[in-house]
């Protein structure tokens, strides 16, 4: 099996899901969360330090998550669907590996015909309000994505695993995957650009690289 894992935010879509959830909760909430997101994605603070903090600030309810899921679909990377279809035809199994929220990512995954999502599940109360999140999910902490890559390799006996993403948590997989590819279309993070062996700014460039 050949596996290609895609980050979601700022890779499959131009948006950062957590920021959009915050934006819907007002300017003050958005500003706080945006700063935390940038610090985490640029490696200034550990992901696990900010993950629960952002959700506590936002209190993302079921309706807000559905709204952001729709926004993400409207801002999909232009070549994502055709690229993933082409890679699947060449024997690659696409997956989403993200520090985002499963309920927000699910509609995008369905549109792309991707059944394997490794992200963070939200827990809602019976009235749809925010209750908590899966604190055991590896993407909630630094080193979580490499941990999932190792699990996939063992469980599926993958012959090759590729990771595509824009953030520091994606770059962390470079030592565990066969090929890490930095994605810079929406944001070019300095550390990713400097350390990734390959960077692309359009997903359709993957076809030539993986050939």
What does this structure look like?
The protein has helices at residues 17-23, 27-41, 47-58, 62-74, 80-89, 102-111, 144-156, 168-171, 190-195, 206-210; strands at residues 2-6, 92-101, 117-120, 122-124, 130-133, 160-165, 179-183, 198-200. With 211 residues, it is an alpha/beta fold. The chain has a single domain (2-210), classed as Rossmann fold. Strands 3-2-1-6-7-8 form a six-stranded parallel sheet, with helices on both faces. Strands 4-5 form a two-stranded antiparallel ribbon. The longest helix has 15 residues, at 27-41. It is globular, with a radius of gyration of 16 Å.
Spell out the blueprint of helices and strands.
Layout lengths: L1 E5 L10 H7 L3 H15 L5 H12 L3 H13 L5 H10 L2 E10 H10 L5 E4 L1 E3 L5 E4 L10 H13 L3 E6 L2 H4 L7 E5 L6 H6 L2 E3 L5 H5 L1
Parallel strand pairs: 1-2, 1-6, 2-3, 6-7, 7-8
Antiparallel strand pairs: 4-5
Helix pairs in contact: 1-2, 2-3, 4-6
């Amino acid at each position: 099996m050949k596996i290609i894992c895609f980050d979601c935010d700022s890779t499959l879509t131009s948006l950062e899901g957590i920021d959009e959830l915050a934006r819907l909760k007002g300017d003050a909430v958005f500003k706080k969360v945006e700063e935390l997101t940038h610090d985490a994605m640029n490696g200034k603070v550990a992901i696990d330090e900010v993950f629960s903090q952002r959700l506590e600030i936002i209190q993302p309810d079921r309706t807000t998550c559905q709204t952001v899921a729709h926004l993400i679909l409207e801002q999909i990377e232009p070549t994502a669907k055709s690229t993933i279809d082409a890679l699947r035809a060449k024997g690659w199994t696409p997956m989403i590996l993200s520090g985002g929220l499963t309920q927000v990512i699910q509609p995008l995954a369905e549109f792309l015909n991707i059944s394997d999502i490794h992200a963070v599940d939200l827990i809602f109360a019976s009235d749809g309000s925010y209750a908590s999140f899966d604190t055991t999910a590896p993407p909630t902490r630094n080193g979580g994505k490499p941990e999932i890559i190792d699990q996939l390799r063992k469980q599926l006996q993958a012959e090759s695993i590729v990771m595509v993403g824009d953030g520091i948590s994606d770059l962390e997989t470079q030592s565990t995957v066969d090929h890490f590819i930095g994605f810079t279309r929406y944001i070019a993070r300095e550390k990713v650009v400097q350390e990734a062996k390959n960077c692309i700014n359009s997903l359709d460039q993957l076809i030539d690289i993986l050939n």
